[in-house]
Protein: Ribosomal RNA small subunit methyltransferase I
Organism: Alishewanella longhuensis
Amino acid sequence: MTKQSGSLYVVATPIGNLADISQRAINTLTQVSCIAAEDTRHSGKLLQHLGISNRLLALHDHNEKQRAASIIEKCLAGEDIALISDAGTPLISDPGYSLVRLCREAGVPVVPVPGPCALITALCAAGLPTDKFQFIGFLAPKSSQRQTQLAAVPDSAGTIISYDTARRILDTLQDVVAVFGAERQLVLAKELTKTFEHFACGTAAEITQWLTEDPQRCQGEMVLMIAPAPSKADAEISEEVQRTLKILLAELPLKQAAALTAQIHNEKKNALYQLALSWQS
Ligand code: SAM
């Protein structure tokens, strides 16, 4: 009789706040026969915090393919194994893709144990459109390559989300300005789930200024979100008119705000009404 295959559990861990670990993640990490981790020293601290004394084996970009073979062998022999990364959901800008693909090819069940992920955590609180978004991971190291990558994202992609670093964020913002213009709306989500969590919202020029005003603001972990290209209606209505509309919208119902703005600036009421509606969708 052949022994039933064990499973590979892809387990999400906290991105800052340790209380974000799920009960199911704790149970899984306790029960599996061993845990494949990106950095065993780093993950050892998390396991220690959770009171889990399970065996860790290193799986990183440089040994993933070889390690995958031995993990699959163990699973096929009936062992359950967990995969974790340094933070958040494995495979999301983290190792694990080859392992999961090879497990699937070998018929080893792959079971996700969901939890924190920086891009979703950032997006759900940014106030940018969530119906469509494109995650582009870490951008390339060279400015010209970054600009090509950004320019390749179609307008229809919705909110663009990328991971960035303290060292590079100002250079990235220069590329964002070069490709999308200084007026494109951005949200920079910093230190998510940690003590100094902060969402900086504004145009590309404003966020750049905010960061340069205080070098400390460049520090920490960050997710950059780029609002979709403004609609035609947005583009045709001047900044000044849009500002008035925004101020009035904060105080008045949409219809009244649009009517008053139209009166103040001698604009078409319906265009302003549609624009305000698009901001709310
Ligand atoms: N697998 C992780 C996930 O599920 O989000 C991402 C790993 S990737 C190597 C690390 C990048 O994720 C950081 O450079 C940063 O862009 C983003 N990130 C991770 N934790 C974050 C946090 N607490 N706040 C903001 N960004 C974070």
